[in-house]
Amino acid sequence: MRQIRTDLAMESFQAAGQDAIPGVEVNHWETMGVQMTEVIIHQEDAGRQLGKPQGVYLTLECEGVRQRDMDSRLAMANLLGEELSRMVKWEGEGPVLVVGLGNRRITPDSLGPLAIDRTLVTRHMFREIPEYADKRMRSVCAIAPGVLGVTGIETVEMIRSLVSTLKPQAIICIDSLSARSSSRIGSAVQLTDTGIHPGSGVGNHRRALNRESLGVPVIAVGVPTVIYAATLARDAMELLNEDEQDHEEALDDIERQLLREDLGDMIVTPREIDSLVTDVAGIIAAAVNRALQPELSDEEIMAMMD
Amino acid sequence: MRQIRTDLAMESFQAAGQDAIPGVEVNHWETMGVQMTEVIIHQEDAGRQLGKPQGVYLTLECEGVRQRDMDSRLAMANLLGEELSRMVKWEGEGPVLVVGLGNRRITPDSLGPLAIDRTLVTRHMFREIPEYADKRMRSVCAIAPGVLGVTGIETVEMIRSLVSTLKPQAIICIDSLSARSSSRIGSAVQLTDTGIHPGSGVGNHRRALNRESLGVPVIAVGVPTVIYAATLARDAMELLNEDEQDHEEALDDIERQLLREDLGDMIVTPREIDSLVTDVAGIIAAAVNRALQPELSDEEIMAMMD
Amino acid sequence: MRQIRTDLAMESFQAAGQDAIPGVEVNHWETMGVQMTEVIIHQEDAGRQLGKPQGVYLTLECEGVRQRDMDSRLAMANLLGEELSRMVKWEGEGPVLVVGLGNRRITPDSLGPLAIDRTLVTRHMFREIPEYADKRMRSVCAIAPGVLGVTGIETVEMIRSLVSTLKPQAIICIDSLSARSSSRIGSAVQLTDTGIHPGSGVGNHRRALNRESLGVPVIAVGVPTVIYAATLARDAMELLNEDEQDHEEALDDIERQLLREDLGDMIVTPREIDSLVTDVAGIIAAAVNRALQPELSDEEIMAMMD
Amino acid sequence: MRQIRTDLAMESFQAAGQDAIPGVEVNHWETMGVQMTEVIIHQEDAGRQLGKPQGVYLTLECEGVRQRDMDSRLAMANLLGEELSRMVKWEGEGPVLVVGLGNRRITPDSLGPLAIDRTLVTRHMFREIPEYADKRMRSVCAIAPGVLGVTGIETVEMIRSLVSTLKPQAIICIDSLSARSSSRIGSAVQLTDTGIHPGSGVGNHRRALNRESLGVPVIAVGVPTVIYAATLARDAMELLNEDEQDHEEALDDIERQLLREDLGDMIVTPREIDSLVTDVAGIIAAAVNRALQPELSDEEIMAMMD
Fold this sequence. Notes:
Order of helices and strands of chain A: HEEHEHHEHHEHHEEHEHHEHH
Mean pLDDT of chain A: 89
Structural class of chain A: alpha/beta
Low-confidence stretches of chain A: none
Number of helices of chain A: 13
Largest sheet of chain A: 9 strands, mixed
Largest interface: A-B, 41 and 41 residues
Helix content of chain A: 25-40%
Strand content of chain A: 15-25%
Oligomer: homotetramer
Radius of gyration of chain A: 20 Å
């Protein structure tokens, strides 16, 4: 089975071209104009086939988000907040640590840092001014660790250091993703309990951020902001030759050729990616704030942000 | 002859797939590590074939520019400055007006406005403090007019208004372009005496900016920052089927299909487009400043910018 | 009477230190938590005393705006929109032209350009796609002309050129202002039918933008973003010596001395000026959009912006 | 002795108004147009008087830096690089960790993060591609940890976590400072071996970053970007009353009054602070890169940065 380059489990499943894969459960439903697709990979084997670790992947899709429709954005923030609060269990001690992955200076990779800018952090209030800290508030801290080429420090090293100091009970990672279908850029959100795995994301993290590497549950929230140019080209070619098996070899040759001539560095993205990333970062942050502060109103959250 | 979507005359010529086209002259040479390609379209007819107006198109290419090699950047700024000063004739009265086309808030379309930010303007010095205005200085003014969707005003309307007030002797337009080959993104500069024509640029100007529409010579300086995703897909498909004429129809079908599913809005661009556009805007501005202020040193120009 | 440096007519009146000035009418009231102060300068003479042209100046003040209180922001946008729509008469033909004064690259001076980015422009829709142009829509265009040091073109020259092309029936200018009291920075808005006069604004326009210079009504909307450091120092000194008339000469000496040592270039501004200017630009744009599109809902306006 | 609010030890010494303070050594010299002032606080007692910890403070001043004079900027980068390399001893194992303090979204506080963006990091090259890691290269990593209100994590907690993981042999902290004299804003750099102490910086770190708190040598590089408005007002008042001792009480009253009415949040800064901070961050980063990579040329450093 041929694997295409996408960070969305639902696209990996679709690309496999089979109605059903043993060990993989797929559910669809729709709420408030948002299409929900849940892919549950029950077995490691099935995961290898799809190039994704075992776990739950929930994708929320709504075209209106990219068209900046107000109702669509509210619906997405609400539903994402609900699903996220279902995944975060406030059972242990310690804060929740929100991690914004990616590079602030590369627009399609800046989703994580931008979302962090709008995440309500409260941990310091408990420590510095405990008498004022609202009983209804939960402890949250946040960091945008930057990327390896800018810091010289692996993200996993940095987060592991912080985990040993902050002792969070859970981590939420926000990241830009790649997709296969242009219609999902800026209009889909994937939520997963598997964390971040190597080779995913626009910034290409080398090492996993998950319960194994960090010792606490890691939930990842991602939004596709790019298609890899080579994927697009490959797809275009497959489209042309879908019923001609003998072309497989020619396809491989051409893909290699395309990658050689710089296409490997090229991304496909909407012209309006700057405003799209800003918008979506706001939606993600709103969902995270609601999920992590269930007893505060939107107005209170807004007022507490500086 | 099939036309592909590129703003570079040299790529239109290459795409035509012929060694020679009547009425089109092509010259190649290399200086200081920069490849120069001059396409002169002598006849209107030949222009129609290439989808480009009659005139001179000079492309300077240097891969090192994109790799941020210091020597390559200096060589490019020097050569571009020389060629530009050859095109601008300081014969009439009045200032030279530099126009930065494009949208500051869309990264690959922000080249023009960014270059304007670093262009030395002097016209007000002659008017406001004539006694201090350096005799060696020439009168230059600059504007980034914004795009139709942001202003509600056609660029040509705005520039025509300014021309009637400022009475410039020449206009230099700086714009982001589209290309066909990914290797030219951020590493090639096209200089032409034909101005800007409809449908070109990343921002898609609807009406021409040229001597006909504005009444003064219009020189355009452009740098490719994107490939249209549909062009890339089309190219990939052509590559696959280069020797199969019967596929032509299938290709057209698929291209239409690709465009329908949102690809029309998608662009292909390097991941590092943010820093690339900033870098190249600096090179263009340096070349423009040298060409327009031949009697000032680089240090004097730098010191006069606020 | 000593004049202090402020762009707010209400502060000029207060600084005059008199309960009443012949030819000046002052009214106060409060609505929805917003303090309104109307200063009407009926006579040219009285205007000279206050250093402000004859006309109406309405100041809306609400501390909650700076504290990012949601209700305060909505109240301010609503009231400002109402007052603005009262000032703009849609009697003639032609669009309304919104002008964002100031320099995008100097944070406290960037209010105008930032507000323009969020102003709904529609003029091109009437021209390009008349059959789709909504009957309920009014024709609006917008420009951020940049500042003299960046363009080499006086703002009044540029706007006058555009007026002769666009033939607007009215102009709304948005600008950053200076104030005397730190409590008004980012929390007050001044609305006036006198346009912009020389020496006002953070960017210091040299020539008036008003009905005399442009031939159409000019309404100015301004928000104080800075206090001049020399004003602050002067004020501190006056505070100390308020009952000692003999110090007047010493004060003048010291003021001159302070200005000499670079204070003339220095501004006093809140630490959080970056987010404050962004917020306030949003409020101004919302008010402008409502005033200029009274028949469109907020949702329709949002959906029409790209 | 009255202490004024400044992060520059040389200004604290001047403000003390004495020619000599026991336990404090002051040296002046000039090189390449740069004024050097070294304040060595030999005794803790003397430090308390000046409100600064015991240690060496070197201030480099050059007005031309703020006027964007090319020679001045080069001279500053060269001298700062030399002095910095004198302070960093490469004796132990491990990388040097460069920390950019401050808030990227508050212009006068963004110096540290901006400098980090241009710091060459190499640590990952040794780890990931040891065979290619240049023998002449030294191991450097960098982080902009953000501020407490954005992360909920004290800077000292975050850096201490990283120290335990990275085991750096030294730390260089880059920060925005406050000064008393407007002439030093953007034109002076302070270098000290005492690290960062509570209450200093534009962002007001609550806890020290120094050898005591972090266990490794901490060198701080700071540039004044603001004067506190209350300091400016106080200074203006003192200037007026310098020979009138009986005003001391009145001064205190007025200072309190000024602080009450919001002046505590206000800063005094040059209008052009945006470009000034960008420029100075470039100078600091150039100096840091030279000090930390003495065997690489400027061209090699530039080429290695992405």
